[in-house]
Specification:
Helix content is 40%, strand content 17%. The chain has 281 residues and is of the alpha+beta class. It has two domains: 178 residues, no CATH class; 62 residues, no CATH class. The strands form two sheets. A five-stranded antiparallel β-sheet has the order 1-2-3-4-5, covered by helices on one side. It has a two-stranded antiparallel ribbon with strand order 6-7. β2 and β3 form a beta hairpin. The longest helix is centred in the first third of the chain and has 13 residues. It is elongated and about 70 Å long.
């Protein structure tokens, strides 16, 4: 019965089950961002739904994962938010992921890969591909000299077992130069709906991407938006906001009073942070 359940779960994943439902159905409303493959990211990249309040980026990645013909090519649909943070992936019908000896991924392997790709600070960003495999002494098999290798012990928690090259290649594709390509394009395509989605997000990178596109006049005229952001208590966002609020904006009596009014709603850390910049007495 356990094997049957595993098979059903795997079938659902391969036949279109997304970690974030709805993305595959919405891909028709898309604009090509990167159509000509370039060295930094050699895959077509699309901005989907830019005139809606749920825009995201999408690419169908088709790539080798090792330096010989033994490994199957990997084909995946990958999704990022407007700040270039990985969201999820989806398998392409007919292209399930495989491990050593072409064994199919099972559900836990897909879940582990998703977890790996979510880790922006993975050790996979700090190593070379040849460090993935712990190579043993040469062995002679059927008259052919070769090396037997296994995933380096210290990296086993950072890769899918039996798919270390796939884990490494996909992490570096998903979390590499494409992130900066996406951020630059989001600013280039900066429509009101895009800004609204960035500011409403509870992801620090999304909010900061919007704020970095503001000038001093925006901080003055949209002080009500600033107050709502401060109330969320995001340390990174609040540090950036208060750094840019210093000067005339904070000397304005009305603005000072507005900040005082929201102080009871803030957590202790945020209140202490604000007191460094604003006289709340």
């Amino acid at each position: 019965m356990g094997v049957y359940k595993e098979y059903i779960c795997l079938f659902l994943w391969i036949s279109g089950g997304l970690l974030i439902p709805g993305m595959s159905q919405n891909r028709e409303d898309k604009d090509l961002v990167l159509g000509i493959p370039e060295e930094k990211f050699a895959h077509p990249l699309y901005l989907v739904g830019q005139k809606t309040d749920s825009a995201f980026y999408y690419s169908r990645i088709f790539t080798p994962v090792c330096d010989d013909s033994v490994c199957n090519l990997v084909k995946l649909d990958v999704y990022w938010n407007l700040a270039g943070k990985y969201l999820s992936f989806d398998t392409v019908p007919g292209f399930p992921l495989t491990k050593n000896d072409h064994q199919l991924f099972v559900t836990r392997d897909y879940e582990k890969l998703h977890s790996i790709l979510q880790d922006e600070y993975s050790v996979l960003s700090r190593i070379e591909k040849n460090e993935l495999v712990q190579t043993n002494k040469p062995e002679k098999q059927d008259g052919v000299d070769g090396y037997s290798g296994a995933t380096a012990k210290e990296l086993k928690q950072d890769v899918v077992e039996g798919a270390s090259f796939s884990s490494f290649t996909l992490w570096n594709l998903v979390n590499g130069d494409v992130r900066e390509i996406i951020r630059k394009n989001t600013i280039k395509q900066y429509l009101p709906k895009i800004e609204q989605q960035l500011l409403k997000s509870h992801d620090s990178d999304m909010v900061l991407l919007a704020l970095k596109n503001w000038n001093k006049e925006d901080y003055c005229s949209r002080f009500d938006v600033i107050l709502e952001l401060i109330k969320r208590g995001d340390a990174l966002v609040n540090f950036y906001i208060l750094k840019n609020l210093q000067g005339d904006i904070l000397r304005d009596k009305s603005n000072q009073q507005s900040i005082k009014n929201i102080m009871p709603q803030l957590d202790e850390y945020t209140r202490a942070f604000i007191k460094k910049y604003v006289d709340t007495k």
